């Protein structure tokens, strides 16, 4: 059984959480016109067999969004942190200022 | 390969059943093949069979990292149906159904295909309208479909909850009489034996660990049994498409998720059809041994663990009892999980890839068992000719980029919601 140590509420059954998918994908800037950037953001996933950084929301608890690092082969959880502590997200498009 | 028949059973009886041949040879790899199919599941084995049978390509190997049938082909709940809504899916799954109807004969192997009929219950007038829409589309495509009202459903499956206290009262159902189930292991064994009969090498305990290249083209594979050359390589590794695809340099719109299946203690005959619950995710059939075989939702987060977690056991049991209160005290014997490729639109990907020499068959989500024969048929065509078979034209990798997704589940681009 998967249990997640919520930094706010403590160790909880994963049924209390909602999965939010891969936390390593970066959302393009809202005015980014590059279809490739949007395609990559919406669809492409590395889907590793191993450590995976992913979003979970503690819906039946503090309702915080968390970033969990979990091994997809055995569900061992290496770290849990508040998603709001993520460094500000850089857009792919901003890498090459026009 | 000697044929199975009433006469062969009689002849082997005379020698005490001791002289049956192996169903397929224990082949060791040759230095090179015309085609290598990676993955000895139903799809890989069917592909090898149709490469030989339909295209005369017999210098073929199927490489399987474990034993054939050890993956999803032997882990699924065996439901076969062709009640799809969207153009592209409808025609493909009906073609598959027709191949199922002749499979035991074509393979000379009894796959125990049982067309017991499948019904999906509707729990509101709107849902029944939606099912009527689907039934009309099926009929326009020459597929059998019936809409049943509440009384008709009750006559067919009286053991469902028709009481006044039912949480989601049954309004009616959509019924496909030709749908049913098959013996899943037999499908793997039947295709393996028939492919072997055409000279295909089935190589077990042989994991593909990398690809051999000549410039940008793929010209073979590295395996735990050494390097093997290939004119063309077909990937059919179900839940592991991302892992192997990454080794070839493919970026894919796929996540791996676990789906569980459940079997109860054996009961007397109760469930004659395949029944799916329209108010939640639950479906059930009864095996020939008497166990109720059922399944429900995905575990719903990326996983390669090939075993399920308890939360879903509870959810599925709740749905089961909401639909069929009469089984509330039946004991669960076993549950297990399989790793599947989930695509963002719940439809598969079968196509040539941008990498020369590499062909892709994956993304079957939790519905690929019913697709096994058609998938093998169309993938063999695609590998043999280098061009997608017309029936899989909608299943290209590029559909996500071009906006031509086939979102049969209507769940949007989140794999774990499909
Ligand atoms: C619990 C469950 C219930 C399901 N119920 C249904 C259902 O009722 N109806 C339906 O239509 N579908 C159902 N499905 C889906 C269906 O089982 C799959 O979509 C389908 O079987 C996948 O194709 P396959 O048979 O070729 O896969 P598999 O049998 O998984 O074959 C893939 C093979 O590739 C091998 N492989 C992986 N990596 C390598 C490597 N590196 N080298 C060599 N070999 C490798 C694996 O060992 C495996 O044997 C269900 C799935 C599950 C898990
Ligand atoms: Zn919390």
UniProtKB/TrEMBL annotation, chain A:
Gene3D superfamilies: Folate-binding superfamily. InterPro entries: SoxD, SoxD_sf. It comes from the Bacteria. This is Sarcosine oxidase subunit delta. It comes from Mesorhizobium onobrychidis.
Automatic annotation (TrEMBL), chain B:
It is found in: Cytoplasm. Its cofactor is FAD; FMN. Keywords: Cytoplasm, FAD, Flavoprotein, FMN, Nucleotide-binding, Oxidoreductase. Its main location: cytoplasm. The keyword Oxidoreductase applies. It catalyses: sarcosine + O2 + H2O = formaldehyde + glycine + H2O2; sarcosine + (6S)-5,6,7,8-tetrahydrofolate + O2 = (6R)-5,10-methylene-5,6,7,8-tetrahydrofolate + glycine + H2O2. Its EC number is 1.5.3.24. Residues 35-79 form the Rhodanese domain. Gene3D superfamilies: D-Amino Acid Oxidase, subunit A, domain 2, FAD/NAD(P)-binding domain. InterPro entries: FAD-dep_OxRdtase, FAD/NAD-bd_sf, Rhodanese-like_dom, SoxB. It comes from the Bacteria. It holds the Pfam family DAO. Belongs to the SoxB family. This is Sarcosine oxidase subunit beta.
